[in-house]
Each structure stands twice: as structure tokens, then as C-alpha cells.
Write a structure and sequence with these properties.
Blueprint (H helix, E strand, L loop, with lengths): L1 H20 L3 E4 L3 E2 L5 E8 L7 E6 L2 E7 L4 E4 L5 E6 L5 E8 L8 E7 L2 E12 L12 E3 L4 E2 L7 E2 L4 E3 L6 E6 L4 E4 L10 E3 L5 E3 L15 E3 L5 E4 L8 E7 L5 E10 L2 H33 L6
Parallel strand pairs: 2-10, 15-22
Antiparallel strand pairs: 1-3, 3-8, 4-5, 4-9, 5-6, 7-8, 9-10, 11-14, 12-13, 16-20, 17-18, 17-21, 19-20, 21-22
């Protein structure tokens, strides 16, 4: 009888263990971090573990944060680099907040929150470095209104005089136009200004700041600007037009605005392409059958009369 009860209870115990094993989670407030930023990770774990007392944060194979539920104390391996706190107010679980005080490249990688006696009970989060202005030379982003980044006289990336840093990963606006449409791309920089520069976010300049004529090497007669010079206008939108467009100014202030333009493929075009493909496919199949029939006919012995 006792053995039967144990057998009946075993599946319930296994179900409870599986439930516990899936309840540790680790999340981060920012997975793409600039140097010097604070990074906060939150480990959520059950309020009570049978015979389990230590929840740890691991990085590069080492424990760097710890919560001892038996002694009710938390600690970090290096208080200059990290901090940790515990929130026990939620019902049924606790929250351990682990903070990297000043992010460095050496902090990139995967972090794991686990129960020390059972590393299989864990949650993970990955933190990566966002290269940007002020980083070590050779790893910089872009300066607006061009790529005028310099390392002269110092060891970190700086913009040359008259330029500001612009994170090229930040897109201010996304536009869509169908082929043949007139595309209007606005330079939504606040304030009053005239004749901004337009480029592709890199070295291809469409029109320089302060100029009234477009660059013939990068544009054509379909390109123009609105009367207030703040809108770029491209008529008869073509396959080659979808790209990044950046406007920028250095007078009266330094600023820039980035838009990406993509082409809309109408549903009827997609359906037509499928139909044509089907017709062509059927035509090719029929042609193959005709050729095979001719070959068989030519090779079949003919009866003589």
C-alpha cells in the first residue's frame, strides 16, 4: 500500500520540480549599452526552495552576485563595479536586482541567474556594446553632416569642429512609396533654416548645405526641393531610389534628420507575377512534352508498305 502511494505521488513531485525549474528568469532594462551607462538586470525566483538557499548571478564562469536566503544577505564580488538588492514584497517570489555601475566592453556577454545547488534551474540575458561617440578610436559611429570623426590629439572618437555626433542606427522616419509615385522627404529639423545638405547618411552628397543646385553625379532631373527648401522631392519613384536620406545643417545650429524610404509592391503586382510565373511554367512543361514526343516518334521504327 505504501509503495502504491509513493508511485502515485511521484508524478506530482516531478511536476512540481519542473514548475520550479522554469520559474527563474533574468531580464535586462537595456541589452544594447553605451560605455559608462548603468545596466540593470532583474532575476525573478520563487520565494522558497526546499533545501536551496543561494541564488547567484554568473558571468564568464564566475559568481558576481549572490542572495543567501538562509542568512537573508546579498553580496557582490566587486562593490566598485556592481551592486545588488532584494525585493521580497511580491507574493510567491522574490526579485534580485543586479546593476553594472559603469558599463565597459569587458562587460559584454551572457549573464545567468541560477540556483547554486542546481545550475539547471536558471535564466539568462545577454548584454552587448553599442559603439558610439566617445568610444575608443576606430570604433566610432558617424558625425553629422558627414563622417568627420577624428582621433587627433586624444584617444577617443570626437567630431571635428562644426559637426555633432549622430547615431546612424537611429532612424527618425520610415517612408514607403510605390514605383512611379512622387516621393516627398521632409527635413524635420526644428527651427528656421534654409538649404540643408542632403546625403545618403555617408559619403554620397546629393546637394551641399547652402547650395541651390543638385550634384549631377548622384542625382538627376527627377530631383528637386520645395520652395522653403526643407522638402526633398523625387518624381517618378524608381527601383534605385529606396535608400537612406539624411538632411543636415550647421547654421544657425548643428542638427540632422534621417529617413529611410522603401518601395511598396502592390498586391496586384504580386498576383500578376504569380500568374505570369504559372503561365510560363505551364508553357515550358508543354514544350518539354512536345520535344519528348518528337524524339520518341523519330526513334520509333517505321513500317514499310
Amino acid at each position: 500500500m505504501t509503495m502504491m502511494i509513493r508511485l502515485l505521488l511521484l508524478p506530482l513531485c516531478l511536476m512540481q520540480l519542473n514548475e520550479v525549474a522554469g520559474t527563474i528568469t533574468l531580464t535586462t532594462d537595456n541589452s544594447l549599452v553605451k560605455m559608462g551607462d548603468n545596466v540593470t538586470m532583474t532575476c525573478k525566483f520563487p520565494e522558497k526552495y526546499p533545501e536551496k538557499e543561494n541564488i547567484e548571478i554568473h558571468f564568464a564562469g564566475q559568481a558576481i552576485g549572490n542572495w543567501n536566503s538562509h542568512e537573508r544577505v546579498s553580496s557582490v564580488s566587486n562593490s566598485t563595479l556592481y551592486s545588488v538588492s532584494i525585493d521580497k514584497s511580491p507574493t510567491g517570489y522574490n526579485l534580485m536586482t543586479f546593476t553594472i555601475k559603469s558599463f565597459a566592453v569587458s562587460n559584454c556577454g551572457e549573464y545567468t541567474c541560477l540556483e547554486r545547488s542546481d545550475a539547471g534551474v536558471n535564466g539568462t540575458a545577454t548584454v552587448e556594446h553599442k559603439l558610439s561617440y566617445g568610444d575608443n578610436c576606430g570604433t566610432c559611429g558617424q558625425c553629422s553632416p558627414s563622417t568627420n570623426m577624428s582621433c587627433s590629439g586624444h584617444s577617443t572618437c570626437k567630431c571635428n569642429k562644426g559637426y555633432i555626433y549622430k547615431d546612424v542606427c537611429i532612424i527618425d522616419q520610415k517612408l514607403e512609396y510605390a514605383l512611379g509615385d512622387t516621393a516627398i522627404i521632409s527635413c524635420n529639423i526644428p527651427g528656421e533654416f534654409l538649404n540643408p545638405r542632403w546625403d545618403d547618411g555617408s559619403h554620397n552628397v546629393y546637394i551641399a548645405e547652402g547650395q541651390t543646385t543638385f550634384n549631377n553625379e548622384t542625382t538627376n532631373s527627377r530631383w528637386s526641393r520645395s520652395k522653403d527648401t526643407k522638402n526633398l522631392i523625387i518624381t517618378s519613384f524608381e527601383d534605385s531610389d529606396p535608400r537612406t536620406y539624411r538632411c543636415s545643417i550647421t547654421r544657425p545650429t548643428t542638427d540632422s534628420y534621417i529617413a529611410t524610404v522603401t518601395v511598396i509592391i502592390p498586391p496586384e503586382a504580386t498576383n500578376l507575377a504569380s500568374l505570369v510565373g504559372g503561365i510560363l511554367g505551364g508553357t515550358v512543361a508543354a514544350l518539354v512534352l512536345v520535344i519528348i514526343g518528337i524524339v520518341i516518334y523519330m526513334r520509333t521504327p517505321k513500317e514499310t508498305i
